[in-house]
Structures are given as C-alpha cells and as structure tokens.
Sequence to fold (1036 residues):
Amino acid sequence: MNYQERIRLDWTAVGLWLFLVLFGWMNIYSATYNEATAAIFNFDTYHGKQLVWIGAALLVAVVIILTEPRIFSNGAYLIYGLIVLLLVLTLFIATVTKGASSWIDLGPFRLQPSEFAKFATALAVSKYMSGIGVDWKQNSTKWACAILIGIPMMLVLLQHDMGSALVFLAFVFPLYREGLSGGILLVGVAAIALFVLALLINKFILIGALVVVAGLYLFVWLNKRTTRDWWQTIGVLACCVVFIFSVDFVFNHMLEAHQRTRIEVLLGKTEDLRGAGYNVHQSKIAIGSGGVAGKGFLKGTVTKADFVPEQHTDFIFCTVGEEYGWIGCVVLLIAYSWLLQRLIIMAERQRSTFARFYGYCVASIFFIHLLVNVGMVIGLVPVIGIPLPFFSYGGSSLLAFTIMLFIFIRQDASKNQLL
Amino acid sequence: MTDKYSGRSRVVRIIFIVVGVLFAGRLAMLQLFDSKYKKLADQQALRDVTQYPSRGFIYDRNGKLLVHNEAVYDLMVIPRMVKDLDTDYFCRCVGMTREDFDERIQKARKYSTYSASPFMKQISKEEYARFENKMYRFKGFYISQRTLRIYDRPIAAQVLGYVGEVDNADLKRDAYYKRGDYIGKSGLEKSYEDVLRGVKGTKKMHVDVHSRTIGSYQGGRYDTLPVEGANLYTTLDADLQQYAEELMANKRGCVVALEPATGEVLAMVSAPCYDPNLLVGRVRGENYGKLNSDKAKPLLNRALMGQYPPGSIFKVAQSMVALDLGVIGPGAGFVCDKSLVGCHNHPSATSVREAIKMSCNPYFYQVYKRVIQQGKHKSIYKDSQYGLTVWHDYMLRFGFGQRLAIDLPRNGVMSGNIPDTGYYNRWYGKERWAFSTIYSNSIGQGEVTVVPIQMANLAAIVANRGYYITPHVVKGYGPDTLQREGVGERHETGIRKEYFDIAADGMYDVVHVAGGTARRARVEGLDVCGKTGTAENFGNDHSVFICFAPKNNPRIAMAVYVENAQGGGGTWAAPIAGLIVERYLNGEVKRKAEETYYREVEPCQKLPLSRRVKKRK
Fold:
C-alpha cells in the first residue's frame, strides 16, 4: 500500500506558511531596495539570497512531506543530541557578531545552530512526554523536562544570545497543556508586572498597595477565613516584598548595561534617541508614519533610507507598518494568529501525545517570537533581537522554522495512520 | 482525543488572541491616532536640502580673475556604519596618524554613533583625489562638498576682504542666513555681499540616514532653484596692485591710486599685506588669530582706516582756499621767517606756485593766518571763529573731515578730523582760542588728520582742476554691469579752475624744478606733478607724497604714505610713487636698480612679518 495516497496535508497551514514567506520576501525586497540592484535574481542582494533560502525551504518542506513521519519521533533524541553537540561546538568556533557568538562560518553562508535547537528540543521533550507511563505529576518527569529544555537554553545563553534563550520559555505552554500548574503562568505575569512597577514607582507605595489588595482579598473576597488563608496570603505578600527589594539588585548587577538601558528606554525613564533608544524610536516613526493604509510598496521613506537598523532582519515589521499601514499590520497579525489557532486545533486533533505536544511546542515558539519581535518593534517589549518567523531575512531561521512547521504538518497529515 | 487537561487548549488560544488584539490596538495608537510620527518621518526622511549658489567671481579692470571658488570636501563619518575598516590603510590614504584617527573617531562617537558628523573638514581637491577611488573600502565614511574662495594672486587682501561663517548678529539681522552659512566679513565681500552671494535654493529631497540624498520629492515640484552670485568687475588694476604691494614690502603704510576723471580706484595697498588665501579653509581660524594679534595690524586697511597728520601736502588745499577767499593773490610773497614756524633752508617764496614747490612753512603760516583772521570781527576770538567756520566748510568740499562714500563697508572707512569751532570750544572754551592756538593746521599738523584715500582724492581734485568723483572700487556687477546708487557722484569744490592750474604748476615744479622737494619722483618722459609731506608724530616722521600724472588730462592720481620712515616725503614716498606712476603710464619700469632698492629696503625697525604665518596646503 502506498502511504503517500493517504497523507492529507492541512492546506490552511501550508497556505499561511506560503503567504508569510512570500509577503516576508516582498518586505525584505522593499526594505533593502536599491535601484542599482533591483533585479529579483541578483544573488548579491538580501532579497536575492532570501530567494535562495526560500527555494531551499521549499525543498526541505517537500522532503519532509515525503518522509515517513515516524522518523522524527524515533530519531528525536538523536537529532536533539546532534544539535546539542553543535551548540557546544559553536561555543568554540563561532564568529562573534553583534556581541553574540552564535554563528558558525561555513564559507558562503553562516549557520546559526540555536535556530535549529528550538525544534530539536521540541522533538526531544515531545518524545519524552509521549513515553508510556510518563505523567507530569511525577517529579522525575519535571526534572527530565527541565534538563532537556535547560541544556540547550544554557548553551544559547553562553553564546550571549539572550533572545534565543528566552524562546525556550515557550515550553511553558505545551507543559501547561499537559498538566503544569496554571499558577506558573500567573506567577510569571505577576513577576513581570511587579518588576516593571518596582522600577517605575516608589517601592513603599507599591508594597502599601499590595497590602491593601491582600486585605481586600482576605476581608472582602473571602467569606470565611481559615488560618491557612491567612498564612497563604501573608506568605505571598512576603515573597512579593522580597522580590520588590531584589529588583534593584537584579536590575543593576545581573543585567548587562545595554539590557538595562533598553529596559529604561522602554519604560520611558531615559530617552536616548541617538543611542539605545534609536532603533525603537525610528521603528515607531516608520510604523506610525504608515497611517491607515501605508505609503505603498517601495514607497516607504524611513525604512528605505536606512534609518531603521536591522530593518530586513529583526525590524522587518517596520516595513509592513510603513508601506501597508495599519491594515497591512492587522492582516499580518491575523495571518499569524490564524496560523497559531490552526496549529492548536491541529494539535488537539492528534491521536498521539507526541504529535499533540509537538504541535503545542511549534505554536508556542512561533507565539513567543511574535510576542517579542513585534512587541519590540512597536515599543512594548525591550529590544531583544529575535527574528519574526518566516518573515525576517535569514537562512537559518527560515529553514529552522520551516522544518519545525512541516514536521508537524507531516505528523498531522498521517495522524490516522499512526494508530 | 480528550483528556483531563484538554480544556486548557482554550486558555492557550485565548492568550494568543489577546496578544494579537493588544498589538493591533497598540498599532492603532501609533498609526491611526498619533500624528506625531508622520511629522517626524517627514522631518527626517524628507529634508529641505539647501542648494548653495556659487559665490560671484571678482575681476580686475582688465578682466583678470582675482577671486574664484574651489571645491573642497568634508569627510563625514557615521560611526555605527564603520565596518571592517583597515585603519592603518585608511590613515595612510587620508594622511593622518593613528592617534589623530582615534581622537577624531572618538569625538564623532561622542556626538552620536548613528548620525553623521564631520570627520575631517575642508579637504582640498588634490588631497581628496588621492583617496577618492578608495572610498568604497571605507564603509561608514562619505564625502560632502563645499566651496571655498581661492585667490590665484595673493593681492589686495584688505580690499577684497574675506568670507566667514555667519555670527549671531548676522543671524539676528537677516533671516536669509542660517547657521553655518558663509557671509562676507570685510572688504568687497562684505559691501557687495548681497550681489556676490546669489540666492539660495531649496530642494525637497528624500535623504537616507547618512543625510545622503536618494532622490527628489515629487519630481522636484516644490524645489526652488538657486540663483548664482553675480560677478564683480572692479576698477583695480591687478598688475599695478601687485607692483605697488611689492614696493611696499617691508614697510608700513599705504598706497591709493585713483583715476581722477572717474574716481575709480586703480590700486589700494595697505602694508604690511597678507596673502588672502591665509583666511580660507581649515587654517583660517589659526591664521586669523595670528594676523589679528600682529602688532603691525595687517588686517587693517590703512588706506581707509588710517588717520594721519597729512603734513605739507595739506598746503595745496590751504593755498586753494586762500586764493578763492581772495585773502592772497597768486603772486603773494611771504618771507621765510623761521621764528614763526620751523622750515628748511630755501629762498623766500614770491608766489603761491613757488611756495608749493619749496613747501615753505612760514609762507603757509601766513596764508592760514589770513584765512582764519579775515578781520570781519573786532575780537580776534570771534574773528578766528568766523574764519575757522569758513575754512572748515571749504575742507569738507575737498572731501576732508567726512567719510568718503566709497563702496566698501562703512565701518571700515574713517573720516579723519577737520576741527571746527565746536571742537576747539570743547577743548579751550568758547572764545578762549584764536589763530595763535591753531596755527599748526596750516602745515597739516596739529589737530588735522586725514585718511590716505582723502589724500589721493586731493591729488585727484588738483588733477581734475576743482572737482572729484567719489572713489569707488567696483565698476559694475552682473552681466549688465549694474552700479550701486551714488557711485560716480561728482563733487565740486567751487574753486576756480585757474587756481588749480597754479597748484598743478607748483606740483610740477616740486618734481621737476631745482629746489623742488620730490625730484626722486621724476620719471623720464612723464610730467609727474606731486607734493611731498613729512608728518611729525611721536615716532619717526611719516613720509607722505601725493601726485598725479600726466599734468594735462591726468590718468592717475595717488597718495603714498610710509609710516615712521626715517626721512621726509621726498626720500620714501615720492620715489615709490614715481615707480608706480611709471609702471602704470608706461607699462613697465626702466629704472630696475631703484625698483629693486625700494622693494627690498626696510626704512624703519624690523616689522613683525605677517607673511611668516602658515600657508594653506
């Protein structure tokens, strides 16, 4: 029996992938447009090179579709192990670019192993979680996941690539789906909120406000108060107070100077328009000047004139904002949201834990990228350099994201067969 | 497949949706409700690029180019864009030391790593040519072009003036100027600024982050074209000017040569001179400091700013006044009585003509006495007051005691001093002074001071036999050789031509007749008419000479003033004037030995040599 006849590709996901890749390419073309090198097949330009990467990505996608899907679950640990080795190797032979040593020079092009570490880790954790008798409630499971995620994350951190390391936080979502306490999401959100508030307002006022909230909780929200409620509330409050007073220390001693200024710029505490605040200020100008419908393809003045640094990579969203306006941005956000929703729906219809967990991983990693990248460009998140999936210029990220997505699409295509 | 936690998929999906909606809202804030960014984008991506017109050229009376422009280049840098730079190679190409490079790049970084700042200013075309074809290797550096004044012949510096960046006063006075613009600071550059500068144009351009233009906005629909500056056609004779400057080398003083019939300035020299190229470009600041603090004051145009006692040349004017008043006749004779005022040894003069020739001090003491004490009042005080008023009025008609309306900056022209009654009343009190108090004026000493251009003008008045045309330096400007209003205005002295003939005869004798004081001004074949002066002052006497030639239909009238020369007008000023006249009227000077002598000799103490300042390039 020819199994190829039975694979049913999810054309919605494939279509969205194609749309994002091509729209992304158009924006790279526009962002780096130069009359002298406008020919589409000029392979010295960014758009020309990206065209090669798109071709490669297409090829890889087809190859993955034609592959037996079991290979990925069976080979998950192998792939993971190889990528971890590559990450270790990178630490020793990397060429340093913009402070990060995450690139391996391969002659005509450069490879960024951390991009590939994302799907490799996703495969490994999925594989582990799909093991017979593995249950999140067991401590061994928690430790195993922490180690599987922690190793590549630490290696990426050692490469001074803060952005890529942050992406590994995406695993909170699939783990949450598999039983991780929802409290951790709340704690995360609360920690970020407290961190920002502690930097912005007087610490004693903040603590006073928290005490008031705690009082309202105890006396208004709860009808009956047990001793346990008291201790819980006081415990949480104490943790908050310790956290608030540790913020200064973390901020001043654990963060690097450029990270500190980026946060200060974001919070409006400093306005260094020529230095740290330059990128975001320029990208806001580019996006803001786009208006409702934008200036049109190749008509952008801010992005076209090199005012926005990294405009074809991390700041590619500016070009969309300037040339296609609010409508264009919303269309792009809808495309991404649609893809994310589609991936969750697909994940939920999987019969294997492996495929479901992996689907959640894919969606979550895309989500974190979207959150950090677009958030940074529009000034909601401090500047952290990670690419916009399928959109930003770069071979490693395009290939890695495509592999990541298509492994899942392939799993989904023969979900019925696997049982 | 459903399991215990499948409900959580909804939570995840809601989180994803919420972030998407939040972003859309934030984008709406930026793009739909805040117009600030649109304005900012226009400001930085659309720039009004000023189109600087080329400043007008300046020519001499024969169409020889005196001042033109030269392209220079500013090397700009955007520190952030500097990549893969081979610093040593760069330093070698541009021609700077490694330390210099580090210092400059540090300064640029300090200003901004994202914005352009000048790395090296005003690089000459030759210097730029050395690394122009290597610029592609220096990422982050680019070139921006400016123009500078250039002077092929280093002459007439004080007349031409110099150009510099506008100051706060300029900006306040005229909204045309923007910070960083250039403006004429002195000389013709200043007085004809509005003609020379042209009109700036603006182009709306798309510019990139390097301030490089990358195309015009809407096909140039909103552009205005610059209007090129008009050329100035001056009355100066470049060859004569250069020759006179050479003769005045190693001296302090000045030369003013006029064409009497037209009032055109043929040459205006103020010594010590300086090379006008010194006040251009990168070296300007440093050189300006040096020139400005030089005790010999090379920046000062002595021809217009120097107020000197005229000495004996003043006697020509005195005799004309006396003759016109009728207080003496042409044949009046006075004994050379040295008890009144000192004099040199000569026979007593028996006529005005002879008196001018011999420059007899007692003679003019008597003449001035008759002008001041005309016997109209019994009181000698009142009589002197009346006489001085009449005399003062005459002096003004000679162009003395007032700023001549020459077409150079008004604040660069002095009036000299012709004392009037008010002046002495302030000094001595009303009716507390009489002729005996002021007699020094008779021989051009005392309270009288005169500006060299006025001395040359006096020569022109005698040359014209009674009138002068206000001296001017510009014949016309622009393609239609337009003229400033008031240039070429004729002023009458109101004194009869016959009297001036007598003065001309006397001045002829000064140069040509035995007993004349300026035989060294004689030029073979030319009838030069002149009058010497030896102006006493606190230091060595100034040597003065005015002359015109030829005697009939004169083509040149001039004044030569040599400060603190050890010798009278006949020793220094007269021979120099003779050489200049010969050069102008004959086209060449035959007396090479004299020429060399006056070129090289230093009449007084060694001067602080302003020519020793650093040369450009």
User: Anything to note?
Assistant: Chain B touches chain A at residues 1, 4-6, 8-9, 11-13, 15-17, 19-20, 22-24, 26-28, 30-32, 34, 36-38, 40-42, 44-46, 80, 112-115, 206-210, 214 (CB under 8 Å). Confidence is low (pLDDT under 50) at residues 605-617 of chain B. Residues 72-148 of chain B form a domain with the Penicillin-binding protein 2a (Domain 2) fold (CATH 3.90.1310.10).
